[in-house]
């Protein structure tokens, strides 16, 4: 990996960590709080592409696992990854990969609505599928009950998907990070 790629990967891991400074919103009916960090997951995929987005969030998850208190609320450590939020957090590298892959495949005709759909597919549907399944297993909950508790996240996550799509399209038009990587690889 080139130095340029390492800088971008590290920078986006830091962006997700900084989004963790925004206090989480605890809900009384679920052990998983609402956080701003999935915005960083969506941005990493949409702006860095599949490979660098995946590595960026993998680095973030490894730092969390090593005990760095970079999750919302100052959380970190293996206990968090094996706790109720673990499925959501562990899905982030793959969610970023999915978003990045879809953006790369549609880069020449990139539009706001396409990136919004990609964010919903990777950053919401995939993350929810992993997070809800893991929560139901860890907390010994019915999958339907875990799914119903996740409905509270939808308005915020749709808002994050819109913000990410808007920013990603604007930035890709002015300074295309994905296109720059493809040119370097050629």
TrEMBL record:
GO annotations of cellular component type: plasma membrane
Originating organism: Aeribacillus pallidus
A Pfam entry, by short name: BioY
Main location: membrane
Sections of the chain in a coiled coil: none
Domain of life according to the entry: Bacteria
This protein's name: Biotin transporter
Transmembrane segment boundaries: 7-26, 54-72, 78-103, 115-137, 143-169
Entry keywords, A to Z: Cell membrane, Membrane, Transmembrane, Transmembrane helix, Transport
Gene3D superfamilies in the cross-refs: 1.10.1760.20
């Amino acid at each position: 990996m080139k130095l340029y790629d390492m800088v971008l990967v590290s920078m986006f891991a830091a962006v997700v960590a900084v989004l963790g400074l925004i206090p989480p919103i605890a809900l009384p009916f679920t052990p998983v709080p609402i956080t701003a960090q999935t915005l960083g997951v969506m941005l990493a995929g949409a702006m860095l592409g599949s490979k660098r987005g995946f590595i960026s969030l993998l680095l973030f998850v490894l730092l969390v696992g090593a005990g760095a208190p970079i999750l919302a609320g100052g959380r970190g450590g293996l206990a968090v990854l094996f706790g109720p939020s673990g499925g959501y957090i562990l899905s982030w590298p793959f969610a970023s990969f999915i978003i990045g892959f879809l953006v790369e495949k549609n880069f020449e005709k990139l539009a706001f609505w396409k990136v919004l759909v990609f964010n919903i597919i990777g950053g919401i549907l995939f993350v929810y599928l992993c997070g809800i399944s893991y929560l139901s297993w860890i907390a010994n909950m019915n999958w339907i009950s875990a799914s119903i508790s996740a409905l509270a996240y939808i308005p915020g996550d749709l808002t994050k998907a819109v913000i990410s799509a808007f920013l990603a399209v604007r930035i890709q038009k002015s300074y295309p990070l994905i296109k720059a990587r493809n040119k370097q690889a050629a």
